[in-house]
Write a structure and sequence with these properties.
By secondary structure, the protein is an alpha/beta fold. The strands form 3 sheets. Strands 4-3-5-7-6 form a 5-stranded mixed sheet. A two-stranded antiparallel sheet has the order 1-2.
């Protein structure tokens, strides 16, 4: 009985240490997105998602990048700025709204992108809502364009930046056309039916090098079915992968080149 009690105490102590370590470590954007979308139960009017958090309109778009097949960029004004209207749904608390606004405003500090509140007469805007999980379409869609930032798990500075980069025209780093030179996809470890999330597409790389530290790079266990890595950096497998908590310098450079800031 004494041994059993001691084992229970030991287990509780170890569990407490794990919990403290997890709490003290800032989770990456990739980890936050995976957690938020893991048990997603979408409403009937919500879109199909690929890559974990990219909204598409139909199955036909699974293997294409809609942003490179049409004009997906937001328009630049004569003053050289790109003004993008946004509307934040009123079901967010003031603290939650401040997190979203901080993410929106961060773009004006590092680019010519200017997010501004929706005004009557705007014919295209980002509608930021707490739907099921975190997601966005890639590039400008026209009309009201939903960016979902669920109150359950999506309201973090880096997560807001990640979804806004999708809305501005960017895909995930691991889908880059040149990714096989930098990561090896471990297809055998990917959840059955999720292989398409690793398809290469003609992404908007803007002449920048592959960035393991991009906020658009998923961590190495993304979509794993057996707790084994689905992506391994090459040639050095020890390189940190998908641990960004906010936009990297390469993300910023790529954004400025795309919009000629």
């Amino acid at each position: 009985m004494l041994v059993s009690s001691w084992s229970l105490v030991s287990l509780l102590l170890v569990s407490s240490c794990w919990a403290e370590e997890e709490a003290s470590r800032e989770l990456s954007v990739s980890e936050l997105l995976e957690r938020a979308n893991r048990d997603r139960n979408p409403d009937s009017d919500e879109p199909i998602l690929i890559g974990g958090d990219i909204a598409i309109k139909s199955e036909a778009e699974r293997n294409a990048d809609p942003c490179t097949s049409r004009d997906c960029l937001w328009k630049k004004w004569t003053d050289g700025k790109v003004y993008i209207p946004y509307y934040i749904a009123n079901d967010y608390s003031s603290r939650e709204q401040s997190i979203i606004i901080r993410g929106l405003e961060s773009f004006s500090l590092m680019s010519c992108i200017r997010f501004r509140p929706y005004q009557n007469g705007d014919n295209e805007w980002l509608s930021i809502e707490s739907r099921e999980g975190c997601y966005s379409s890639v590039g400008r869609q026209g009309g009201a364009q939903t960016v979902s930032l669920s109150r359950q798990g999506c309201l973090y500075y880096g997560t807001v930046q990640h979804e806004l980069l999708h809305a501005l025209g960017f895909n995930h780093e691991q889908t880059r056309s040149d990714r096989d030179d930098y990561i090896r996809v471990q297809w055998e470890n990917i959840i059955d039916g999720k292989w398409h999330n690793f398809d290469k597409i003609a992404t908007l790389n803007q002449g920048t090098a592959y960035d393991y530290g991009s906020v658009m790079q998923y961590e190495k266990y993304a979509f794993s079915k057996n707790n084994q890595p689905t992506m391994v950096p090459i040639p050095n497998s020890n390189v940190s992968l998908g641990q960004a908590t906010q936009m990297s310098q390469s993300d910023i450079t790529r954004l400025n080149r795309l919009y000629q800031c």
